[in-house]
Amino acid sequence: MQTLQKQIQSTSKAAIMYNPSIILSLFFALILCSGLPLTEAAGGRWRLLQKSVGIAAMHMQLLRNDRVVMFDRTDFGPSNLSLPGGKCLRDPKAVIKVDCTAHSIEYNVIANTFRPLMVQSDVWCSSGSVFTDGTLVQTGGFNSGERRVRTFEPCSTCDWKEIQLGLLARRWYATNHILPDGRQIIIGGRRQFNYEFYPKSTATQKLFDLPFLAETNDNNIENNLYPFVFLQPDGNLFIFANNRAILFDYTKNRVVKTFPAIPDGEPRCYPSTGSAVMLPLKLDAKSIEVEVLVCGGAPKGSYTKANRGVFVEALKTCARIKITDRNPKWVVETMPQPRVMVDMLLLPNGNVLLINGGSAGTAGWELGRKPVLNPVLYHTNNPLGRRFELQNPTKIPRMYHSTAILLRDGRVLVGGSNPNSLYNFTGVLFPTELSLEAFSPSYLDPEFSSLRPAIQFPISPAKVRHGQALKVGFTVPGKVAPTKVSVTILSPAFNTHSFSMNQRVLNLGSRAFRLRGSSKYEVEVTIPGSLNVAPSGYYILYVVHQEIPSEGIWVQIA
Fold first, then answer.
1. Is the Cβ–Cβ distance between 126 and 497 less than 8 Å?
2. Which residues form the Galactose oxidase-like Early set domain (predicted)?
3. Chain segment 9-18, per-residue pLDDT in tens
């Protein structure tokens, strides 16, 4: 409230008279300062983008051309979108042996249009990440797809290419992560307590055992699928499965450190599906501190009970740990609502968005209940007990097999939800959902337009080098607080089953702030020099002013 009062005092009469956005901003400020009651869900807006894209968006990845690749599975039966030119998929293991409908699309964010793509094997519950050149590399799946590697290049006419035996083991519910040398590591999957690499060399043409995955496997339930994996600044991997984590040196196949279990001991991985993020790395600090946040999930026994028709309330807690501490400990926080099958997205300003899911049951066919319609903002840097903020609700339940990703303009693309074993639109509790929505977090609310930066240079897409000093020019319509300007870069994630693989935000800070002209400014930042911190590839760069981000630009770190 004090910030808003200062904004009112520092705004000239002329600015108020000729700037509608300031009028709106002051209107909201007066309401807040007056003490009039406001609902907690005062922020954020929803927009329906497409009533139907023909498929259920079970997996999503934003590419460097502002297109989003989505797909579901080939054994759902026929989708609501035909393949072009008489193309048909012939799969003897699928429900429909000859299927002439699409199970993947490319969505054009800018034009709000989509086109069908053709996958050649079953991509159900698969995983992926983006190579340094911007190519999506997607691995595993079910039946015909369990050992496949698929690639999709970002071009307006490209389609899927597949390598039949690109993997050594069947990968179903596995996790991928890009590595500093440009390879991907593929970890786990159903009954796979091991990992492998892609592409392979002579030295890596084999499977590597990972006993931690066997140790975290609950009999007949699992609770360790789609493990949460994050590359660390020291080059090791943080791997979380079930209710605990390790720091793992994949180059020597050894556990470097074992972290304590989350205090409540409850499972957080599939099918007791919660989610996790590595909080933004602040690179302008003397040393890089690393924190991981894990939220939601389902209590022990929930999966078994849900299969018997008893739907237990989901977990209402998050747990946060600073893994770079000498003796790391989990700090438990309470969310506004219980959540299972929740997606967690890093936002350009360093906060976290919790979105999608239910408040009872677990992941799995028709095993979730009580949709949670309100997203929640987690304010990363707020004091404990003041970090959660409800946002305005959607009208569309997003349950099992829902997805969400951040777009370059700061909106969140939301799709999917199919807890049914086929496309099923009637006679079920949660029908198959083919729509796409955009959620605009509260930082895009009109009241903040006077604070919002607009990047002038570099021009998107820009190519930069590790360790390079980079000047960033931008404009801000209103008064600028130089000490509250920062530059962040974000690695777009591969999202499925409530986990965003390869998600990463780096806070580059800012220095050498200077005025370039009327409402024009410039700061300088340094691109990370370490491949462990910033693996080569495509990122989205944002200027953030008082927690209000600009629209992003694409940068390739090479």
1. no
2. 452-557
3. 444 333 333 3
